[in-house]
Design a protein that fits this description.
CATH architecture: Orthogonal Bundle
Oligomer: single chain
Structural class: mainly alpha
Number of helices: 13
Largest sheet: none
Shape: globular
Order of helices and strands: HHHHHHHHHHHHH
Number of strands: 0
Distance between the termini: 52 Å
Helix content: over 70%
CATH topology: MetI-like fold
CATH superfamily: MetI-like
CATH class: Mainly Alpha
């Protein structure tokens, strides 16, 4: 009983630590203050830029991450170990480090800087830089979820499809994608949420220019210097968006199963299914 009581106290302390700041945030602004915050000149441009850039970055992540995840799910441990490590890395390293790395890659003095300059392109401190930063930090969430989704597919189903005359591409689109779809949606949702909340890499690589690179997290950063009330409202909007997204995923028929493991797990070193 003493152990149960101690476990309850420790669990309650952690839940309080997680829930109390969110609860305080929701009760920090009155409806009038929320309306005032929505009329703040920083809000509309930052929200619009966040929506546009995250939709672009998510489209690129899904388009390029799906075939990568399929290959990782079907490959042996030895063949894909290095790629898995590279995909995991942006989750582990701090976003500020990602921003510095992107500057060293795309900046004027970076690896690709001279080439981009000859082409008349400047990536850092542009809207394109925002998209690149979001892709780098958010892509692992989609790829990991997609790999785990593809690994749930029974290889016999793919073999049966092939024996019925369906080619590799047909088996992928007509069998694998429908079965893995819940996991792909969960991964895409988590990747979008991560891109929406990206701050550190964006600040260092793209800067904080209203209407060009100032996303909602950066608008919160700017508002804190002048109007904490507006910063609270902006934070409330992002929190509400995340809560609605999580609620929608959990209410989906397949949401509990996928989100029960957070929808994203470390790559499991399982043998590839037969194709």
């Amino acid at each position: 009983m003493a152990l149960d009581a101690l476990s309850f106290v420790l669990a309650a302390a952690l839940v309080s630590c997680l829930a109390l700041p969110v609860a305080v945030l929701f009760f920090s602004s009155t409806p009038v203050e929320v309306l005032q915050g929505l009329r703040d000149p920083l809000f509309a441009p930052a929200l619009g830029l966040s929506v546009r850039t995250t939709l672009v970055s998510l489209s690129i992540i899904v388009l390029t991450g799906t075939p990568l995840a399929w290959w990782l799910a079907r490959s042996s441990r030895g063949a894909s170990w290095g790629i898995k490590l590279l995909v995991d890395l942006p989750i582990i390293i701090p976003p500020a480090v990602v921003g510095v790395a992107l500057l060293q890659t795309f900046g004027r003095q970076g690896l690709l800087g001279p080439l981009l300059a000859r082409l008349g392109l400047g990536v850092p401190f542009s809207t394109a830089a925002v998209v690149i930063a979001q892709i780098v930090v958010a892509a692992p969430f989609y790829v990991q979820a997609a790999v785990n989704a593809f690994r749930t597919i029974d290889g016999d189903l793919l073999i049966t499809a092939r024996t019925l005359g369906v080619g590799r591409a047909g088996a992928f689109f007509r069998v694998a994608l429908p079965i893995a779809f819940p996991g792909l949606v969960t991964g895409a949702s988590l990747a979008w949420a991560r891109a929406l909340g990206e701050f550190g890499a964006t600040l260092l690589f793209a800067g904080n220019f209203p209407g060009v690179t100032q996303t909602m997290p950066l608008a919160i950063f700017s508002a804190l210097e002048a109007d904490i009330g507006a910063a609270l409202v902006f934070s409330l909007i992002l929190t509400a968006a995340g809560a609605l997204l999580l609620f929608g995923l959990r209410m989906a028929p397949w949401g509990v199963g996928w989100l029960g493991g957070f929808g994203v797990r470390r790559f499991e070193d399982e043998p590839p299914h037969p194709s």
